[in-house]
Structure formats: structure tokens, C-alpha cells
Amino acid sequence: MIDKTTNQRAWFLVLPVVVLVAFNALIPLMTVVNYSVQETFGNNVFFFEGVKWFEQILHSERFHDSLLRQITFTGIILLIEIPLGVAIALAMPKRGPWVSVCLVLMALPLLIPWNVVGAMWNIFALPDIGLLGRMINGMGFDYNFTQRPLAAWFTTILMDVWHWTSLVVLLAYAGLSAIPDAYYQAARIDGASSWSVFRYIQLPKMKRVLTIAVLLRFMDSFMIYTEPFVLTGGGPGNSTTFLSIDLVKIALGQFDLGPAAAMSLIYFLIILVLSWIFYTLMMRNEEQ
What we know:
There is one protein chain. The protein has helices at 11-36, 52-58, 61-91, 98-111, 114-124, 131-138, 149-177, 181-190, 194-205, 207-222, 226-231, 243-253, 257-287, and strands at residues 38-40, 46-48. With 288 residues, it is mostly helical. A hairpin with a 5-residue loop joins strand 1 and strand 2. It is globular, with a radius of gyration of 24 Å. The two termini are 43 Å apart.
């Protein structure tokens, strides 16, 4: 019997990644945890407060309102972008020179920096000089996203759909491209309708990429900050003040480091738990 020795030298290849993650994630996280249980009045003097800040945030009406706005925004985004992305992917050509053209056009919005997207849509939607604003007002609607909360929500959602639906399209298109032609040939022989092909062939084969798409869009939309901040600044009033914007206001605007740290940890746990629930439910449905 030959004893096989395990080569542990491969761990040295992983070590740089572990060190990088420690500096970029774990150490800042421990700093936030440290601030979340203490109070400081400057001069590097701290006073232990325990869970006071967590209780304050969890019982804060301001936090509840921001969380409700965040959940509403994320829910609307998922309901629009996932079906729309799948529909566009189904309409894209599967062969020929137009495939490359469509893929490049779909990838263009993803290449634009977030702050540039917010600035573009800010100018685009201005009621006086913006093309979108003048067009909507010309149709007889009273549109002004700087003064009307409903218009601000409409513009923010439209901006996010324009910016991130392409990600869902590319993922769905990759899933569709991986389906062997034999499935489609069998469906044609059986006389299956387009809806049957989508329901029994395409959709089941896209489940894994759609799971990734839902998780990515959920996490990204739940943490959105730059685009709505540049577009509306959280206004008018607090109508588009999502959790991320409210957190920055507490941390930098009010310089309340203890409550901001506690809120950021609660924010992190909410995203972690909801992402786990999404993933668990989707994997369970796929197994069934």
C-alpha cells in the first residue's frame, strides 16, 4: 500500500488573496464594530456604550422609512429588470454578424461609471433643458423630478433600468447560448409552441444564470448610492433617501460615528440574510 502525501504548497498561492481580503474587508469591518459599541467626542477618547446605538437605530422611525424606501426600490427594480432582460435576450439574434453588434450595445451602459450615469440622467431629465423632461412635459404631464417625489422615483427607476438591465440581458443570453440545438430540434419535431419551448426548455436551462442575475441585482440595488445621490441628492425632501444615502448623511453629515457604524452593520446583516434567503429558495426550487 502506497502512502500518498498531500502537497500543501498550494496554500502559498492562496495566501496573498487571504491577506488582501483581510486588509480590504476584515480590518475595516472590525473598525466599524469597534465604533458601533462606543461613543467619541474627539481627541481619540472613547466611551463604551454597549448596544445602545443598535437599539437607537432599530427603534428609529427614520431608519424604518429609509428601509421601506430601499425595499420598495429593490422590489420594483427586480420586477422590471429580470423579465425585461430575459425578453431582450430572447429577441437577440443567435447567429450572424449582428450578434457581436448587439452584445457590444448591451455592454455599453455597464462601462459608464456610476457618477457619470447620475450626472447624465440629471441633465437628461431636467424639465427645462433636458430631452426627457421637455418630452414628458410636452405630452401634457407636469414633470419635475427636482420638486415632485413621484417624478423623482420614476426618473431614478428609469435610470437604473437603463444602466443595469444589460447585465441581466448578457447573463440570460449566455444561458440561452449554452442550450444544445438538439433540444430545439426535438421541440420542432413534437410541434411545441414558442411558449412551450420557453417554459420547458429555455427557462429551466436559464435558472442558474437567472439566480446569479437576481442575486447580483438585489445586492447592487439594495446598496445603490452614487446614481441617486448625483441625480436627486436624496430629494425632493427625503423621498429618494435610501439606506445608503441616509447612512452617509449620519456618518459624514452629522458625524455620528457610533449610530452610523451600528446602522452599517444592520445594513450588512439585512443584505446578507436576504441574499441567503433568495439563494436558498431558488436552489430549492431548482432541485424540485
